[in-house]
Design a protein that fits this description.
The chain folds into 2 domains: 106 residues, Cobalt-precorrin-4 Transmethylase, domain 1, CATH 3.40.1010; 107 residues, 2-Layer Sandwich (Methyltransferase, Cobalt-precorrin-4 Transmethylase, Domain 2). Helices cover 37% and strands 22% of the residues. It has 8 helices and 10 strands. Helix 3 packs parallel to helix 4, helix 6 crosses helix 7 and helix 7 packs antiparallel against helix 8. The longest helix has 13 residues. 33% of the residues are buried.
Length: 220
């Protein structure tokens, strides 16, 4: 059986009882960063073999894991935070398992996108999740242009070192909209800001961006 296991996005207490039971029961845990996952396992006194499973070895490692599954092993796939396959390694393994009729189940848990949407106060009955915007400026601006008239709430992930570039592009292309920036969700320094993009640019120019970010906007 392949288990797709959601893990906390910050606060280690945000893990489900089912997730803990699953991690204790499997033969192997495939982790995006074994060092990061070991912190979680140590916190709950779980001792299981770990293997790395990240973006740059995903295809090759997926084939290796598939062979183990065919031998009857139970494997859990986890990412550094949240649900594997949602802007994290896991999609390739999920698709491969389905194509080979390997039994699979998802052990659900916290998601940064849904957590941020809930806290944003923006309409949540209709939303689109865009993951990370393109790294290159031209592609990023083209993507934002294509979403200019998008209905519903738009959700992005962004890294701290690209945050200001993205905010500048949003400010220019979407004409200084009010957006929500959520930072370090569930952690000690959680911060949720809602303001015009130009004001947020000024804020992060004077407060160096740190942590992982979720950006949300609704044009309606």
């Amino acid at each position: 059986m392949l288990y797709i296991v959601s893990t906390p996005i910050g606060n280690l207490k945000d893990i489900t009882l089912r997730a803990l039971e699953t991690l204790k029961s499997v033969d192997l845990i495939a982790a995006e960063d074994t060092r990061h996952t070991k912190i979680l396992l140590d916190a709950y006194e779980i001792q299981k073999p770990l293997t790395s499973f990240f973006e740059h070895n995903e295809k090759a490692k997926a084939a290796y894991l598939l062979n183990l599954l065919k031998e009857g092993k139970n494997i859990a796939v986890v990412s550094d935070a949240g649900t594997p396959g949602i802007s994290d390694p896991g999609f390739v393994m999920i698709r491969l398992a389905l194509e080979n009729n390997i039994p699979m189940t998802v052990v659900p848990g916290v998601s940064a996108a849904i957590c941020a949407l809930t806290a944003s106060g923006l309409p949540s009955h209709c939303f689109i999740f865009e993951g990370f915007l393109p790294v290159k400026s031209g592609a990023r601006r083209n993507k934002l242009e294509s979403l200019k008239n998008q209905e519903g709430t738009i959700i992005f992930y962004e890294s701290p070192h690209r945050l200001l570039k993205t905010l500048h592009d949003i400010n220019e292309i979407w004409d200084d909209p009010v957006i929500v920036v959520a930072r370090e969700l569930t952690k000690k320094f959680e911060e949720i800001l809602k303001d015009k993009t130009s004001h947020l640019i000024a804020h992060f120019n004077s407060h160096s961006p740190k942590g992982e970010f979720v950006l949300l906007s609704n044009h309606n």
